[in-house]
Design brief:
Arc Repressor Mutant, subunit A; 2 domains; two-stranded antiparallel ribbon; 2 strands; about 65% helix
Amino acid sequence: MKLTKKQKVLLDFVAEFSKEHDYSPTFREIMYALGYKSVSTVAKHIDNLVVLGCIVKREGEARSLEVIYESQDSAPKWSELELEIASRESAGTSSAAQEAEILRQALAILRK
């Protein structure tokens, strides 16, 4: 997936801030750091990154942004699980179906 320049800058900022401080930045901190004039602009960019699978945001929690992946060359963490689930489902055995269900549950946890 190809990110826009602004998406990449915002994603890199959140990742670096989170590494340095052990918590994610607020939307206002992102706004000031990246020179935006409105918090709603930051919210719109964050929402787009959530849809793209780059960031996870927990509603109702402060400082709850989590970067899922940082570069355009890597895939979100759950893409490997999705491939493994598909592989197990195509195997057609009952044990593979059970394993696929366990992986689906892990995927749900990861996406929270």
